[in-house]
Amino acid sequence: MSIDAKMAWRNIWRNPRRTGLTISAIAFASLLLIFMLSFQFGSYEALINSSVKIHAGHLKIQAKEYQNKRDMHLIVPDPSAAGKILDNLHAIDAYTFRANAFSLISSKERTYGVIVTGIDPVREAKVSSLAKLIRVGSYLSEKDTDKALLGELLAKNLKAGPGDELIILGQGRDGSIAATVVQVKGIYRSGIDEFDRSTIHIPLKTFQDAYSMRNSVHEVVAVCKSLRDVSTAKKNIRKVINNQTNQYDITVLDWQELMPGLFQGIQMDLISGIIFYVILILVVAFSILNTFLMAIFERTREFGVLMAIGTTPGRLTKIVLFESMSMTMLGIIAGIIIGSIITFYFQVNGIDIYGSSEILSQFGISGRIHPRLSILSVFSGPLSVFLITFLSALYPTLKIRKLRPVEAIAYV
Amino acid sequence: MYLQIAWRNIWRNSRRTTVIMIAIIIGVWNMVFLGALMRGIVVAMVNNGISTLTGDIQVHQKGFRDDPVIENSIKNPELVENMLNNTLPSDARWASRVRVSAIANNARHSSSVTLVGIDPLREADISFIGSAAIQGSYLKPDDKNGIIVGQALVDKFETKLGYKLILMSQDTSLEIASRAFRISGIFKADLEFTEKKFVFVNMPVLQQMLKLQNGISEVSIILPDHQDALHVKNTLNAELPSNLEVNTWRELLPMLNAYLKIYDGFILIWYLVVFIAMGFGIVNTTLMAVFERMREFGLLKALGMKPGRIIAGVLTETLILLLIGMATGNILAFLCVYALSGSGIDLSAFAAGAEFAGMSRVIFPVISVWDLSAANLVVLVLGLLVSAYPAIKAARFTPVEALRHT
Question: How much is the pTM?
Fold first, then answer.
């Protein structure tokens, strides 16, 4: 350790109480930021995963404009060709085919308008969590025809349960009347009211027959092995689609385009969070600025002596910066350690915010929120604390250059 | 006397005092201003919820809330209406509605909507539709074919003013009733969801279509003060026949109620966090000020000053610091709120995100007495509490050791 560092180190412990308080303030800010950022990232991940799993998927191949218009004439005419593209991509974990139509559903007593979705039971189970959401009855099997899965709220509205027959009445792709009778096999609950109230799933084959779809579908839904693979996978799929001339009106959308609300909601939350944190760090910076200031003004005499025996102002500045930065580093390290431990505890055990389960279930998150530690959440907060305290430590050192040895020694 | 001494003491080192004061000012400004913004978001959500066909209080036939179908409507509305006229406070307003789940169709599209039959004159004072921006015209009381729909629905259906829209729903004899309407007005709402979900027609037309005679689904009541809801509910409950049920908006919108509670908890935690951040500075600065004056305190004690008066002296210094900081912070926050009160913060860039979170597209800050007093009390009480530590330290200096200290 150089002599300067040694001096700085001894200097900061000349007043252990003050140093302790300053370090605590920095540690507090760092650990709070680590926890809050991890908490935010954890809840975003839960949000994205649940939305992706319940319905949307990471990527969808569909006709251009289908996302906005939901027009049943906008089809993917050759789903197996699209499937082949996905088969060749390493990043794709699983994919499935879906077809949707708005139709009337009637039970013995009631009639409602809902979205009927045709699914491939085996493939669907690998892509979405539908199979796991079944609360009553059972999931569709491969050979099922004319069976249906019903949202819990819809089942309640229709007063229908497993075994009951429902009449589906809609319009086929060719303009003909699509009518079919299905038997309820299972009832699912996702927690998202809108989904549970207005959707019904039937086997894709039954759907294609009833709605004169032939072999076409509306969406090819894919999930990637991880969220990070999505953008590359999307690029690759787009490249292949653009090269195949017979697929010119087909496009691929990622989860951000499929659920713009979710994506923007996350951006908004993150931005407002950052504003909060910056202001908090500013408060901390002013809180500790006094320590840095006093470290100089208290020692005017001492600095005068040091300068009189030949210490350059530059060297004094260096020592003073050493002092403030070693306090900052101690605080940040303590903050990172304690913050990571606390966050890790909640990452394992989850956090239950009182009364929030109802709200969370509207967004498809069940139960507790688990914060998620990451390099970003652990280091970005403390790094900003470091930068801002460094700036506030610079201000007092400017005063050193103005010191004149003779006056400084005379200063009491 | 105390005040004067304390005032002079804190300005003995003006730089230090200014620095800690800035910390307090930023902290208080942040608490009050950002608190007002968050409160604005929640208040907008609640107002939106109440004005989107909820009202402060609703009366339903028992069973309707659980199973909102036409069979569960109120069969004898005159009785309820007479009673409301007699028991409600004179400045309360109410309106009856018929509300059914229906399917809207045109040549190209169909979608499920909530078809609402309203009394246009009464409804105008009750829910958002009365004050919504409407292209075309608001429902006229004798209009038999007119329907008002949301902008988002119009876009989705690729239709426009004056075009036909067919509505289908189940009538009281469980048959499918359908009727064609002409779009006479297009409304805009805060949430796209509302624009897609609700369509409005005249109540008698809907009653006829559903063979409902004069039955209604609900009565929605708006009170001059939201806080009275529970009280009025109890009065109504005592008067109304037992086959009806009365609910306040808190029961009707459990999600919003939960939001409010979480928000109240969250803001208090946030206040504490900001306070802790400046608390370290307050303690540290006061400690410095005290230790610097160790000799002085020793001398005072040697002259016979009681420790209690020394504590009071130091606390007065902190009090002045806190009060000036709080006053400035509050004034700055109020100025910011005032600056935003005209145009608000426009979230159009995040329209889809705001919709997802159920927020309005424009945020207006709202200063509530509760938030304001909570913020200031946290700073004042905790500020004095933490500076008790240096104050007690000052009171404990013994004359001998203090006078020896240089």
Answer: 0.86
| Binary contact (A287, B20; C-beta < 8 A) | yes
Q: Is B171 helix (H, G, I), strand (E, B) or coil?
A: coil
How confident is the model at residue B361, as a pLDDT?
A: 84
For residue A366, pLDDT over 70 is answered with no
Task: Give the up-direction half-sphere exposure of residue A71: CA atoms within 13 A in the CB hemisphere.
Answer: 16
Task: Give me A143's structure tokens.
Answer: 């050979």
Q: How confident is the model at residue B86 (pLDDT cuts 50, 70, 90)?
A: confident
- Residue B80 Cα distances to B94, B95, B222, angstroms: 11, 11, 16
Q: Following DSSP, what letter does each residue of A310-324 receive, concatenated?
A: T--HHHHHHHHHHHH
> First CA to last CA across chain B, in angstroms?
28
| Chain B, window 36-95: residues with a beta carbon less than 8 angstroms from a chain A beta carbon | 67, 69
C-alpha A171: how far from chain center:
38
CA distance A228 to A49: 12
Residues 6 or more apart whose CB falls under 8 angstroms from that of B103 comprise A104, A113, B110, B111, B112, B113, B167, B168, B169
**A20: contact with B, CB 8 A cutoff:** no
Helix-then-strand count for chain B, H and E: 16, 12
A358 CB-near residues (< 8 Å, 6+ apart): B254, B255, B258
* The pLDDT of residue A245: 60
pLDDT of A175-233, one tens digit each? 888 999 999 999 998 878 888 999 999 999 999 999 999 899 999 999 998 888 888 99
Task: Please give the average per-residue pLDDT across B187-208, as a whole number.
Answer: 93
H helix or E strand, kind and range, residue B116: strand B110-118
Contact between B57 and B251 under an 8 Å Cβ cutoff? The reply is: no
**A62-71 confidence digits (pLDDT tens):** 998 888 888 8
What are the structure tokens assigned to B370, written together?
Answer: 């509760």
Contact B170 A32 (CB under 8 A): no
CB contact under 8 A, B354 and A284: no
Within 8 A of A17 by CB-CB distance, chain B residues are 287
- The residues spanned by each domain of chain A are 3-52+262-410, 65-248
Is ipTM > 0.90 here? no
Q: Hunting for tokens 């974990």 — which residue is that?
A: A93
Query: What's the pLDDT score for residue A296?
Result: 82
Q: Nearest to residue B302, comparing CAs of B405, B390, B400? A: B400
Using one digit for the tens of pLDDT, what is the confidence trace for A76-88? 888 888 898 899 8
Strand B345-346, strand B134-136: pairing: unpaired
Tokens representing A133?
């959401």
Phi, psi (rounded to 5 degrees) for A222 = -125, 145
